[in-house]
Write a structure and sequence with these properties.
203 residues, alpha+beta, Trefoil (Acidic Fibroblast Growth Factor, subunit A), 2 domains, seven-stranded antiparallel beta sheet, two-stranded antiparallel sheet, 11 strands, 25% helix
Length: 203
């Protein structure tokens, strides 16, 4: 009898053997995982993700640091409060308006942090401004020097339909979503102002 004619007869046995083999493998995995601690299980599940996304930010330690207030063309000082909220104030003595502007890399890439709150200004993929305690790539902004002597700060990580998204304060001192900002809008224009302590030291 040709070999191909015996296949239908042997098929149930083959499927049965394959099924038992799969059950054995699954049982082995379950037994192995049951012996792991929760920390080990978390490490197993996340190890590849950590390898892909781990970043070393030691290079920030040597970056140029300036202490500034960012005064918007809409007449507001940019602030970062203790809850990571980004807003504007018209009080030049507001302690949350004192910002650390640190050079992250060449090409005018900066990280901006509230001196009192210790929150970094960050922008997510939707253009929302928010404070972050831990620095990451969302906290990087490119400083753009404008012809009107103001500066603009665009996210280096996120764009909207190929267009830059900027830090911006509305006429009411509210942060604008990046998708609503443009380089030419006055809400995106800031003057970095030296703080009084730095005026005396010449920093």
């Amino acid at each position: 009898m040709p070999r191909w004619m015996t296949l239908p007869c042997n098929l149930p046995n083959l499927l049965s053997g394959l099924y038992l083999h799969i059950i054995f493998l699954l049982g082995s995995v379950c037994v192995a995982c049951s012996d792991c601690t929760p920390e080990q299980l978390a490490a197993i599940m996340n190890c590849s993700k950590h390898e892909r996304h781990a970043r070393n930010y030691d290079y920030m330690e040597g970056g140029d640091v300036r202490i500034r207030q960012l005064f918007s063309r809409t007449q507001w000082f940019l602030t970062v409060d203790d809850y990571g909220n980004i807003n504007g104030t018209q009080d030049p003595t507001n302690c949350y308006s004192i910002l650390e502007v640190r050079t992250v890399s060449e090409g005018g890439v900066l990280a901006i942090k509230g001196v009192k709150s210790q929150y970094y200004i960050s922008m997510n993929r939707t253009g929302l401004l928010q404070g972050k305690k831990i620095y990451n790539e969302n906290c990087n902004f490119k400083e753009v020097f404008l012809e009107n002597y103001f500066n603009a700060y665009s996210s280096t990580k996120w764009t909207r339909n190929g267009k830059e998204m900027f830090i911006a304060l509305s006429q009411k001192g509210r942060p604008l979503r990046g998708k609503k900002t443009r380089r030419e809008h006055i809400a995106s224009h800031f003057i970095p102002m030296k703080c009084r302590e730095e005026e005396r030291t010449g920093v």
